[in-house]
């Protein structure tokens, strides 16, 4: 996943000659607390926050007199890994970061709420779908063999005696997020998935012999 998959492309555009009053009105209307300042080619030239504007007595002041300069702005590029957006937002304690393309133009904004929404969508992925992808990647292992291996791993790890059919029914109604909680985290979930694949392959090899 790349930054461009997270960013908001319908971002607020503010220009240096806008007054503080006009900018306040636009930020209030769009419910934005910080925003990029662009030149006529949509290239980044500054950054302004609602707190900066709140401290200005003369609301007729131009944004170019108020904005933070380019060298103080945290930026991302659209093809950066999505994890860079998470790291920068946490590390610099900002609520949004402008995203640039290869020409230096602002093409979007990544907000902390965009990241939260994306993670929420990932957590809602059905585990059944993940197993279907896993089945395709294993190449040669059937769905029934995969479910049988999953039942074996479940018994080894939890002591629960469950059939392949029961396991299949269970994952039909389980999301990725629920599975993570049940397994005790991301590492344990994927370690279990790998173990299922190993057992499915070992059982297939044993049958061939």
TrEMBL record:
The keyword Transferase does not apply. It comes from the Archaea. InterPro entries: CBS_dom, CBS_dom_sf, Diverse_CBS-Domain, UCP006591_CBS. Keywords: CBS domain, Repeat. SUPFAM superfamilies: CBS-domain pair (SSF54631). Gene3D superfamilies: CBS-domain (3.10.580.10). It holds the Pfam family CBS. Residues 7-63, 67-127 form the CBS domain. Signal peptide: none annotated. The keyword Repeat applies. This is CBS domain containing protein.
């Amino acid at each position: 996943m790349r930054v461009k998959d997270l960013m908001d492309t319908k971002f607020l555009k503010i220009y240096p000659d806008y007054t503080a009053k006009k900018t306040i009105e636009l930020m209030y209307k769009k419910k934005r607390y910080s925003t990029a300042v662009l030149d006529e080619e949509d290239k980044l030239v500054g950054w302004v926050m609602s707190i900066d504007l709140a401290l200005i007595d003369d609301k007729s002041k131009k944004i170019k007199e108020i904005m933070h300069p380019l060298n103080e702005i945290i930026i991302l590029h659209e093809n950066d890994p999505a994890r860079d957006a998470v790291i920068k937002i946490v590390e610099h304690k900002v609520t949004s970061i402008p995203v640039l393309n290869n020409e230096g133009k602002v093409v979007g904004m990544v907000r902390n709420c965009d990241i939260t929404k994306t993670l929420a969508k990932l957590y809602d992925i059905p585990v059944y779908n993940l197993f279907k992808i896993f089945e395709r990647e294993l190449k040669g292992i059937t769905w029934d063999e995969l479910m049988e291996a999953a039942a074996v791993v479940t018994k080894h790890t939890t002591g629960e005696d469950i059939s392949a059919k029961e396991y299949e029914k269970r994952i039909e109604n389980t999301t990725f997020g629920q599975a993570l909680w049940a397994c005790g985290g991301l590492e344990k979930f994927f370690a279990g998935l790998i173990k299922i694949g190993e057992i499915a392959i070992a059982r297939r090899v044993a049958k061939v012999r």
